[in-house]
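Hello Y.,

Per our agreement to keep a running log of every chain we model this quarter, I'm adding this entry. I've kept the format consistent with earlier entries: sequence first, then predicted structure.
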Amino acid sequence: MSAIAAIWRLDGAPLQRTTLDRMIERLAPRAADAVGSWLDGPVGLGHRMLHATPESCRETFPLAGDTRGTVVTADVRLDNRTELMSALGLARRPAVEVGDGELLLRAWERWGEECPARLRGDFAFALWDARRRVIFCARDPAGVKPLYYHLGPRVFAVASGTGALLAVPDVPRRLDELRIAAWLVRGVDDRAVTSWEGLLRLPGGHGLAVTARGGAPRAYWQLDPARGLRLTSDLEYAERFRDLFTDAVRCRMRSASPVAAALSGGLDSSSVVCVARAIQEAAGTGPLRTYTARFPTIPGCDEGAEVALIEARGGLAPRHLRGDTLDPLGDLEKRAGLEDETFHAPGYYMHRALYDTARSDGVRVFLEGTGGDLVVSHGTGYLHDLARQGRWLALGREARQLSQSFQRPTWRTLRAVTGAVAPPLLRRTWRRLRRRGLLGPPMIRADFARRIGLEERLRAAELSGPGYAAEAARYQHWRTLASARLAGILDTLAASA
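Predicted structure for the entry above:
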């Protein structure tokens, strides 16, 4: 992935090049193939390139438009390139000559702020339009590419990491108390909040247009838990999922270097590897490189037997690392410099070891699975549905089977679904009593809760979500996939990789 930075002195003062250079320098660990900057009066854009796709090897960022005074810096991989080239009048040009940056510029000139909804892929970009006097930023729907910003009275700054924003003199350097509360209290879930006051994450699926008068994020895409695909059989659902999943893996294999993948015994990475292997075999390329963390001295953690089943099929070039010899805190200082944030995923030290090894092997595109179990679910949401529907025999049968799988008493499984049949008022009252310490010691002090308006924020969160109007299983999926925790994990993985 590449890294980007942009800054605009809203007070009209000339931007000091040293400020832009400091932002770019703070992004150095993220990409090192090329460095570029553009500065004009109060506005500056910066870029650090990682050549990943064939088209990126020909691109130079920041990229200026032909005549309209537009300049873009982007961390981008577009997957609907053929569709975009046709719509933008570029179909006659060789595809390899048209970079994703040029497609972004043309899409902005054609569709303006509606352009992100036309893009398919992973992207984060900042674009300066001198004619309209606006900086426009956008992030892909899933939030795979990180993007943070600060909007103050005198300066607007946006970058791939909060560390680059902290390099700007006008940006505050104070911890955000709401973020502290979010670690302690369930329900404080704000995807925009970071560890730093005044530094915000642009949520996935959002665009941000900033003028001299300011601006605010606007969603161009949101996950809808009430929307569903209706097919006639389980087989049709399976085939439809396989088609979409295969296409998603194929898009991410467009690479200027060998493609590799993480491989564990789990659901998500093994699914990715099997599909990627089939794609390479059909194309006559390969074998697919895989990287696995092994724990031979800790049998309960080792997934070697499951990994061996996948490797036995062939078509892979496996490499195993000793995960049981890694120090989880060994790279703590390096992590702080990379992420500039609280550690949303402290257990991902193994991933960083896999990334380091793959990088030393010349890999630029590394596939892995994240959140596969969140999508498929562990079945507890279905239990909530059965309880709300009054299907008690089916509930007992499913709870008993789940309890056997998780090796825990059935009553504990059933206790977890009592909230599904409790009236909404009772659920809200129970949560408030717990927060106030009437059902046990509170997680945070009352004066701290009052200072940040905790009760008001939690009440607003209860009213803003889809709640139990959607099926419980769908609601659990929506709540997890749209959560601040998952957004933080994706950003952590992006920074580490």
